[in-house]
Amino acid sequence: MPFPRSEAPGELGLLEQLCNSARLLYTEDALITAASASAWLRANGVDAGEIKGKEHELLLRLRETVRDHLDGQDRTSELNKLAKVLLAPPRWSAQGEPVLPPKKTGTLDTYLGECLALVFTSGLTGELERLKVCRNPDCRWVFYDRSPAQNSVWCSMDVCGARQKMRTYRSRHAR
Length: 175
What we know:
Order of helices and strands: HEEHHHEEHEEH
Structural class: mainly alpha
Shape: globular
Low-confidence stretches: none
Mean pLDDT: 90
Radius of gyration: 18 Å
Strand order of the largest sheet: 1-2
Largest sheet: 2 strands, antiparallel
Number of strands: 6
Oligomer: single chain
């Protein structure tokens, strides 16, 4: 992680990790090709083999939809479409806990389904509100806001926050 924030706790780390597979500030994207996406998945404990075109598109679609949703954009329609493709109806586990199982049982389908189910369940508990997207449009790094007031807006005050403060200062003092 290029910024001095600790990772999101528990399962939210899965969403943070997926969204941050693209480091936009540095023009790096671990999922840019199907081959690089397969390697990224393996490195992150998801052995889905070599993913193909449609699977790659679905992975990118989920990542960008989740990032946009976390950024406050209305992505309801896309989230519902993804839920229809990735998630089965809610059920209860053998332990009596509610679950949103993946629709298909393949490794990649299970991973994508778990990510989308996590958006849903953490949204219900309010925990999803702590996952934020850096306000710098060139960055959009996803971070977990640990501040008591939950009002952090920059991935890093040393990088994006400082840049924005300098832009504001220069615009006020421009001649």
